[in-house]
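Forum: Protein Structure Q&A
Topic: Joint prediction for protein chains with partners

I've read a bunch of threads here and the consensus seems to be that you should model interacting components together rather than docking separate models afterwards. I'd like to see that in practice. Below is the full input, 814 residues plus whatever partners are listed. Could one of the regulars post the assembled result?
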Amino acid sequence: MEFVIDHLVKNYGQKKVLKGIDFVFEEGKIYGLLGRNGSGKTTFFNCVNGDIDVDSGSFCIRDNGKEMPLLPEDIGYLVSTPTVPEFMTGREFLKFFIDIHEEVKPEKTIDEYFDYMMIPEDDRDRLLKDYSHGTKNKMQMLLNIIASPRLMLLDEPLTTLDVIIAEEMKKVIRSQKQGRITIFSTHLLDVAVDLCDQIVLLNNGKLEAIDKENLGSADFKEKIIEALREQDDDQ
Amino acid sequence: MISEFYKTLSQVITLRSIIGYNGLVFALKKTPIVGRFIPDRLYATKELKIVYWIFHVMKELFLLFIGKIFGLGLIYLFSWILKDAYLRNGMADGLSGKALFSSFAVFLFIVYALCGILINRSVFRCTTEKEYLVFMLRMNARKLNNTLLIYDLLKLVIGYLIAGIVAIFCGGPFYVWLGIPILAVFIRLFGNGTQAFIYNLKHKRGSSLKDNYVAYVIRFTMIMLMVPILLGLIINGLLIPIPVLVIAVVVLVILGIFGYVQLKKLDPFIHKRALSENMARNEIQHYRSSDNTKSFKKIKAVGSVKSDKKGFDYLNALFVRRHRKLLITKPLVFTIIIAAGVSLIVYLLINEYADKYGTSQCLKMIGNNLINILTFGHYEDSLMPYSGSSVGSFFRWLVTKHLLALLAAVSVTDNSFKCTQAMYINCDNSLMTFSFFKQPEKILRLFDIRVLQLQKINFGPVILYGLICNLILFITGGQDYPFHYLINLVVPILISLVYSTMWLVLYYLFQPFTTTVKVKSTIYLIARILIGFFFTMIFWIPCHSALLALILAVFSAVYLFFMRRLVYKKAPKTWKVKT
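Posted by a regular:
Agreed with the consensus. Here's the joint model:
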C-alpha cells in the first residue's frame, strides 16, 4: 500500500506554502516530516486531513496497483495540542468511540486499552478536561489505534510531553507502524532521527526524501541542517 | 533638562503613534468583509501614517477643546450670567461687575478643578504606552511620569489661556485670564503630589499601591451630590467673600508647591511600582479577542446515562446531562415566567366566576365545561367573559388568524444559538479531528439527534405559548372548528421546529465559531441577516390557523427533508474547526 500525493498546492493569499508536492509514502514505515517552524508541516497535514481546502492537487491510496480515493476513515490525525470532549470521562469517551466504530472489533476491554496506553487507573473515570496534556495525548493516540487507520498523521505529538510520556508514546508509535503509513512531523532533528525510518524534508514548499543510509551519523545531521538553512536563504 | 524633556516626549509620541496606527490597521483587518481586503503592508505605509497623524493631532485638539477650553469657557459664561443676575437683583453686596465676575469664576473654577483631581486619572495610571516604555523598553518611570505631567500642564495652560478669551469677552479682568491657568497648574500639582505622598507612605508601610475602586466610587458619588447643592446655593445668593477666595487661592498655591516637592522626591522605584499596580490596558484590551468560553466550561462529572444508549445517542445524552444548566436555564426561566403569568390569568378568571356564581357552583361549572371542551370542544356561553370586548376581539384575531406572530415569541425564548455554541466548544471542536466525525452518515445521525434534542430543550416555553393561545381562544368564545385547540398547540411547536433547526443547519453548513466561540464567518452573518429579514416579513402575514397548521406541517416536512440532504452533502466539507 502507498499513499500518493500528486502536485499538491496550497497558498494563503500571496504566500505560497505548498508548491506542488509530488510524493509517495510506503506502508510499514514511519516518515519523519522535518521542517523549520512555519515551513508548512501543519498546513500539509490539514490539507491531507481535509481540514482546509487545497488550491490544486490530489491524494490517493494505491494498493496492489489499484488507486482508491483517500477517505476520512482512512486517516488518523494526532494534533500537537489535543482537544478532547471535556464533558466526558476517559472511560465514557472510549465506550462512545468503540460504539461508533461498529466495523472495528475491539481486541481488548476498555481497561485493557487503558493499560496498554499506560493511562493511570484513577484518571479513567475523571472528566477529560481535568486530564494532563500528556494523558490527553495518550487518549488521542489510543483512539487512533482502535480505529486503525491506514494513514496516521502525527503532528509534533512529542514536543510538549515530558521525557517519560514521550518515551512511552515513541514505543507505542513504533509498535503500531506495521500495516499502515505513519507520517510524523517534527522540527526536532534528534526526535526524527531516533524514531523514524525515513526523513522527509519540507523544503521550500516541497517534500524531499533524504537518503537514510547514514541515518544517525553526525554527517547526516549536518546535511539536514544545511538543507534547512538553504531553505531559509531561498526564502 | 529641556532637551531631555523633548527627547522623552518624542519617544512617547512616536510610540503612541505606532500603537494608535497599528491598532487602527489591526481593527480594520478584524472588521468583517472589509478586513480581508486590508493587506499586511498597510502597517508599513508611510503616507497613511501621515494621514493618521493629522487625525491624531485633530483628536488631541478636539480633546483639548472639550476637556479644557469648553469646560472653562462654560464656567466663564455661567459667571457672566450670575454676575448679571446678581447686579439686576441687587444681590451684589456693593461689589463691581468685574469683582463679581472674578469671584464667581475663581470659586467655580476651584470647585471644578478640585473635582477634577478627585476623579481624573493621576499621572501614575499605567497606560499601554507607559507599560511598553517602562516595563519593556526599561525607561526610567519617574522621568516618563514627569515628562508626561509637564506635557499635560503645558496643554492645560494653553487650553485655559484660549478659553480666557471668553472671560475677556464677558468683561473679566486680565488677572483672571492669566491667574486661572496658573492656579490650575498648582491644583494639578497638588493632586498628583498628594497621590505621590500617599504612595510614599504606603510603600514605607509595605501596603499595596493599587488605587481603591470603592474609594473612587465614593468620591464620584459625593461630587455628584455636592456640586448641584453648591450651584443651587450660589444661584440663590450665596456669595463667597473675596478675602476667603484669596486665602483659598494662596492655600492651593502652597499645596501645589507641596505637591511639586512630593513629586520631585518620589523615588523612581515607587513610580515604577505604582505603574505596575495600576495598569489600565484599556487601549489594547479593546482589540484583543476576549475569551467567551468561561461560561461554557462549567462542567461537572455529575450522573451518567442509561447503559442501553449507544454511540451518538450516548454522546448526546451525556452532553445534555453535563450541560444541563447551560442548555435549559433560559427556556426554564421563560417557562416559569410564562407559567406564572398564565396561572395568574387563570386565577383571576376563576375568581371572577366564583364572584358571579359562588365557589362550589363555579368549580362544578368549570369541571363540567372542561370535560365538554376536551370531548366536544364547546362550553357554556356564561364562561366567556371577554367574547364581546374589543381587546378580546383583537386577541382572538391573533390566535385564530395571526399565529405566525408567535415567531417573535419563539425567537425570544429559543436557546438554539447558545446550544450550537456549547456543542462546538465542548464537543465538536475536539471530535472534528477524528475521521469518523466527518463521515456523512455519522454527521447526519448526530444532526437528527440534535434536531430532536433542541425541540426538547425549547419545549417548555413553546407549549406554554400554545396554552396561552388556547386560553385566549377559550375566554373569547371557544373554538371555531373541531381540533382548534389541538391546532393551537401544534402551530408553535412547528414554528419552533423550523426556527431551532435553522440555527443547527447554519451551524453545520458554515461552522462560524472560533475557539473563543466568537462568530467569524461573513457568510454565516449574511445568512442570519437574510433569514432574519425573511422571518420579519412572514411575521406580518395573517393566515387562518387551520390553514397555517397545514402549511407549516407540509413546509416542516419538506424543509427537514432538504436540510438533512444539505447537511449530508455539504457538512462533511464545511463543518470543521476554524483555523
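Chain A touches chain B through 36 residues (CB under 8 Å).
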